[in-house]
């Protein structure tokens, strides 16, 4: 399946993470922001909270959009590698490109080539990516870059341990 990411919605450094969200073709930035906020709201990791805070900072209504609608959070599943939320008849999931691709295969859906290429490019740079999908359709990708100072400190620690 060939499709492209349309534009960068958010790029800003939060704590030790720089967060970048890219909307997939046909996805409104506000929708991606709301779905991303929902997916990361209960993620208590440093990275998850960095994404959540950044999205809510740029799109203050993202957190409030679905407050009055019943949500059912779906915690991380070791078997599928996905987590997310079910809301108002919609199934929102986030996970690695591989996990979402396997999810799509199980649903009988094609997985966009653009996701595979973007994830590979990010991985070669040492970045972490997660794909956000809604009802079996990719709506965006979150790329997380560890701050250079943290990377340098980690590398020094690794060098000291291996010496």
UniProtKB/TrEMBL annotation:
It is an enzyme of class 3 (hydrolase). This is Potassium-transporting ATPase B chain. One of its GO terms (molecular function) is nucleotide binding. Its EC number is 3.6.3.12. InterPro entries: ATPase_P-typ_cyto_dom_N (IPR023299). The gene is kdpB_3. Keywords: Hydrolase. The keyword Hydrolase applies. It comes from the Bacteria. The lineage of its organism: Bacteria, Bacillati, Bacillota, Clostridia, Eubacteriales.
